[in-house]
Amino acid sequence: MALDVGKVRIGVALSDPLGYxxxxxxxxxxxxxxxxxxxxxxxxxxxxxxxxLVGNPLHMSGxxxxxxxxxxxxAEELRERSGLPVHLWDERLSSVAAHxxxxxxxxxxxxxxxxxxxxxxxxxxxxxxxxxEQAAALKQRNLHKQNCAxxxxxxx
Length: 156
What we know:
Blueprint lengths: L1 E4 L3 E7 L6 E8 L3 H14 L5 E5 L9 H17 L3 E5 L3 H11 L11 H38 L3
Parallel strand pairs: 1-4, 4-5
Antiparallel strand pairs: 1-2, 2-3
Helix pairs in contact: 3-4
């Protein structure tokens, strides 16, 4: 599950059980922190979530913004409440990418507030999934190189 946590809304996206695709799920309109966590816990249980990704709204320089500090606290509380691994993921330019996706799909600019956060959560989740895939491929290549080197070093 990926979350794009904003001051007014939280965009929610899910991956399929095998982790191949990312789909928008919904937009939660924020009411209170307690209500936000109750709603998220219901979604976590309903969709059998095993890991959570929270977009980290850093400044373009990479520095922690005031909002990023609040989101980081939110992520920590979600980790404590859910008992699940919660990862922060750099979300810089995710909203820009989300608007581009909606532009390409021909989505009306006046009606985006209902879906933009979901699409941003999908962008965040896709970025995480691509990173995980690349890390796994790199690990596999390194293991292969190590095995080849071990075979060369072993006596015939």
